[in-house]
Amino acid sequence: MNPARLSLPVTVVALLLVAVNSAAESVPVNGRVLGDGDVPLAGAIVSMRGTETTVDANGDFAFQLDTPTTLSLRLRAPGYYPFIHTVHRSDFVSGRDARLPDIRLVKKAAGRTLFMFAGDAMLSRRYFEPRAGEPVLVRQDSVLDDGKKLLAPIRPYIKLADFASVNMETQLSSAGLTDRLPKSVTFYSPDELATLLQWAGFDYVALGNNHLYDYRDAGLVSTFAALGETELVYSGAGASEAEAREPGSVDIGGRRYHWLSYVGWAGTFEPNQVAELDKGGAALGNTAVIAEDLARLPDESISVLQLHAGLEYAARPALSEQTTLRQAIKDGADIAIGHHPHVLQGLEIVDDRLIAYSMGNFLFDQYHYTTQLGMLLYVWMDGDTLHRAEAVPLHVNGYIPTPATGLMRHAILTRLARLSGPRVCMAPSGFHAAIKACNGERKASNTVAMPDAAGTAAVHVRELGASPLLPVQVDGAQGPYRLGIDLLRRGDFEYARLFGAHDRTWIESRNAALKTGENNRLEVRVPAGGGPVRTGLKVFERVFALSSPATVSGRLRVEGNARIRFLLQRRRANDTLQDALQNGPITEIGTWDGSTDGWTTFSFDYNQPRVATRSVRLLMEFSDLSDAQSGVTVAVDDLAWIEWQTPWISPGDANDVPVFATHLELRSKQNP
Fold it and tell me: How far apart are CA 219 and CA 237, in angstroms?
């Protein structure tokens, strides 16, 4: 690929700057609370920072957002389920009215129950022994106290539910376990994880997964002992197949609920990971087993099924998983929840029953960037009937589960809507997604108008007022355009340090650091007489499309005379991570030379690698071009790494159909 080179002067198009409101500004924010039938919920109470506001007859309320950190809004109304919405300055675009999408509360009703589902959880590996230069999150002699700090930001959300569930993807033991299965990845977590999950508000843990037998029977025994010290309900593993297949049964609101949990494959190693006649392990779930177990449940009971299956890091469910979960619904399951891919997949509604194919991560130490996009899924059930669901975007920030904000939240909602089935309709509820069956409703799309001045750089669709829950339709484009998805999702740096999370995304050093406060940014300093300074992503992005056209764009502020090289590093199929980080092939994809008077924009096009590439990462190298070598300081902001989802589309083209996207670009330069 040929690198693009860009030198000053550069045209600055103010419209295209994905700028957020300054922390120094007090931003007036407006919102509205709706109840049943989307009717204004007069008299609802909005609590924040120890003060309460009663919404008016139209359901409207207003407040000042005057903090650089997050603000928690707690909403309640007589006869309705209370809920929480977290807001941050990065949720609102400078130059547009700061308005929350309408918040839709759910009415309480006889027989209605609120369930909450979270993704994969463990407490091992990098929580205790992080990567070089990163802080320890959990100390061996302070597991419970340190663990509570990790879950404190998300605990209020878990406590909202009548009954909350999580996939506990680990054995438990506070003693050393050594007799591991002959498989590539094994781990276990301390006993305190069970107590910690209960403290956070969980009521049930699913055990049917591929790590519940990592250390064989010894780990199984210690796991059940630790769970026995809590009130957690569990199912999905046991000392025999019969025990592993037993549901966890519990009375909720006067109804009997049965919780079933399975893993979808046995493993090719010996002994394998599943329970057998006289061998411990996880419950192996296939269509025949699941149908048999559902048929054994008492009449009038309600069943919640969880399946650990599919392919890691895949955007869509494997056909085998989709077949099994759809059939489970046909055979009587009332809710079906999937996990294992460690990334978010879409939702589906079959026979008025909800399927979530992959919840993504909840409390997990994976550093692949797409695994950090998660959700909490709230499901209101009227007995065995789905009333409504709501997805709350979750950012696993530095291994800490936190409410997502800004670009990250927009990306999560876009991904969830893009990957969900045609019978799933989503509408905003604040910055969450309210979910229901479409029931014949035609799905809408965002119709955005691109101003004539645009075209020198890609623009984030939220700059144009687009909802993340709808595909984008372009109206009145003056020339060919294309639509894409941002792989970074955090290039405005506004997420940094929120909820006390240590950043584990960017390479930081004495000369390259995240700056937070009035204007979050990545700042690089090349000292006088110093050599090039390199920064960028710490590790590789595993979820990308081979041979896809891509663009790197953003804003720069340069003091001095700088050269900035934009680099793409590959991890080849057989490279170890460490070898790839040190020796993976690097290609220059763009170069920027010069200085600036204030902020300016840049944009480079290139194609993703074609073959033999497992993952990629973006790097930047900064050099001082001045003759005196007096040093240079560069600030980087609003960085985007866009993978295009469409070719160039001409206005009126028959292929001009709505597409889920985070970015839109009008053609003003030749394709690379």
Answer: 12
Q: What is the pLDDT of residues 71-114, one digit of tens each?
A: 999 999 999 999 999 999 999 998 889 999 999 999 999 999 99
Q: At what angle do helices 143-151 and 192-200 cross, to 10 degrees?
A: 30
Question: Is residue 445, in this structure, part of any structural domain at all?
Answer: no
Please, is 24 exposed, middle or buried when counting C-beta atoms within 10 Å of its C-beta (0-12, 13-18, 19+)? Answer: exposed
CATH number at residue 641: 2.60.120.260
Residues 6+ apart with CB under 8 A from 554: 491, 601, 602, 636, 637, 638, 639, 640
Give bridge partners of residue 433 from the DSSP assignment.
391, 428
Is residue 155 domain-shared with residue 293, that is, in the same domain?
A: yes
Secondary structure of 55-120 in HEC code, one letter for each residue: CCCCCEEEEEECCCCCEEEEEECCCECCEEEEECHHHCECCCCCECCCEECCECCCCEEEEEEEEE
Q: Which amino acid is at 94?
A: S
Question: 620 is in which domain, residue-wise?
Answer: 4-18+461-666
572 CB burial (10 A radius; 0-12, 13-18, 19+): middle
Q: 10 Å Cβ neighbour count for 154?
A: 24
Residue 572 covered by a domain: yes
pTM of this prediction?
Answer: 0.95
- CA pair distance 178, 125, nearest whole angstrom: 15
Q: Are residues 607 and 637 in the same domain?
A: yes
The answer on pLDDT for 15 being more than 60 is no
* Residue 189 scores a pLDDT above 60: yes
Residues 6+ apart with CB under 8 A from 570: 580, 584, 585, 586, 587, 609, 613, 614, 615, 616
Tokens at residue 417, please?
Answer: 């809507």
- The strand pairing partners of 107, in sequence order, are 80
Same domain for 638 and 585?
yes
